[in-house]
Design goal:
Layout (H helix, E strand, L loop, with lengths): L1 H15 L11 H15 L4 E12 L4 E7 L2 E7 L4 H4 L5 E9 L2 E9 L1
Parallel strand pairs: 3-5
Antiparallel strand pairs: 1-2, 1-4, 2-3, 4-5
Length: 112
């Protein structure tokens, strides 16, 4: 139990960006875990901005299929379900996409 509290303290300090105190009883594996957690906190997901035309909307699976080129359509997950009320088939859109949990997800969308 004490080890969990200690790891929680170290992770909290690493994520907050403060210096980690040097403790003799911290294993190298625990230190590496803290370093990786701090590195992940400092690198936000990459955002890609794309343009296309809404090809279909599937609210049941939280996806919008967008035609990016005449011969290329792709499905994108939707982060905010309110987007389904904002677009219709054939609307030209500009949208921001991030890779969230392994799926390309629309995090922002505007009609053009």
């Amino acid at each position: 139990m004490q080890e969990r509290r200690f790891l929680y303290l170290i992770l909290t300090l690493a994520i907050a960006g403060t210096a980690m105190p040097a403790y003799a009883d911290v294993s190298e594996q625990q230190q590496a875990t803290v370093a990786l957690a701090g590195a992940a906190a400092n690198h936000p997901p990459t955002t890609e901005t794309l343009r296309g035309v809404v090809d279909s909307i599937d609210e049941r699976s939280d996806t919008i299929r967008i035609r990016l080129a005449p011969d290329r359509t792709e499905p994108f997950k939707v982060q905010d379900g309110l987007l389904f009320n904002a677009v219709r088939f054939g609307d030209p859109v500009a949208f921001s996409v991030q890779d969230i949990s392994g799926s390309r997800t629309i995090v922002g969308l505007t009609k053009e």
